[in-house]
Amino acid sequence: MLSQTAPSLFQPIVDDLAEHGWARQSRFLPDDLTRALADECRERARQGELAPARIGRGAGQQVREGVRGDRIQWLEAGQSAACDRYLRLMEDLREALNQALYLGLADYESHFACYPPGTFYQRHVDRFRDDDRRVVSVLTYLNDDWQAAHGGALRLHLPAANGERTEDIAPLGGSLVVFMSADLPHEVLTSNRERLSLAGWFRRRGDGLL
Ligand code: OGA
Ligand code: MN
Question: Residue 71 forms beta bridges with which residues?
């Protein structure tokens, strides 16, 4: 069912995603929700609940800090009021994308991510080679007072007439970036400060195997 969320929040996202394959919104999360999620992410890190992120899938997964240095924890419904509010917002976004773009998005998976100072995530695409369920990637950022000197931009590698152009996006608290998971190479530049976010993926149904 759509939604308590104002449709005007979603319309520009839907339009840009359809036209360009990606979209950004600088003020997406309400300030109090950004603060609550940032506090929760820091508290989970303090409790030792975040684990070094791994690359690959299934039995082949491994930690490689030369590829990605973030520490993560997957979200589950019912863990906290802040997470449930966030998941409800993502559910509304999922329905808005389905209604406008017929993407057949069936569910959403997401994790907190904390990049300690000095870490990064090398260029990659989010869809796995052996699992094509991830359709739309969603990043929401939880950082106060982010300055250019802190680094840590999300760099999108976008198609351009002469091959490729890059777009660097600072991880400003409350902002959102979405893009088509299969098509868009991206990376996280080295962050000089602790960098907090929620990374998630709308997925279609499937057995996961190509
Ligand atoms: C990812 C990712 C980008 C970011 O987790 O797959 O690309 O800006 N994150 O945090
Ligand atoms: Mn990614």
Answer: 52, 114
Per-chain mean pLDDT for the chain:
93
Length of the chain: 210
pLDDT band at 59; cut points 50, 70, 90: confident
pTM: predicted TM-score of the whole model, two decimal places: 0.94
Task: Determine the distance separating the centroid of ligand 1 and the alpha carbon of 187, expressed in angstroms.
Answer: 7
Domain ranges of the chain: 6-54+62-117+132-144+172-180+193-204
Ligand nearest to C-alpha 74: 1
Class of the CATH-defined domain 6-54+62-117+132-144+172-180+193-204: mainly beta
Q: In this predicted model, what pLDDT tens digit does every residue of 98-124 receive, in sequence order? A: 999 999 999 999 999 999 999 999 999
Ligand 1 binding pocket (C-beta < 6 A) is: 113, 121, 126, 139, 154, 186, 188, 197, 199
Which runs of E-coded beta strand occur in 53-194?
71-74, 107-115, 121-124, 134-141, 154-160, 163-169, 176-180, 186-188
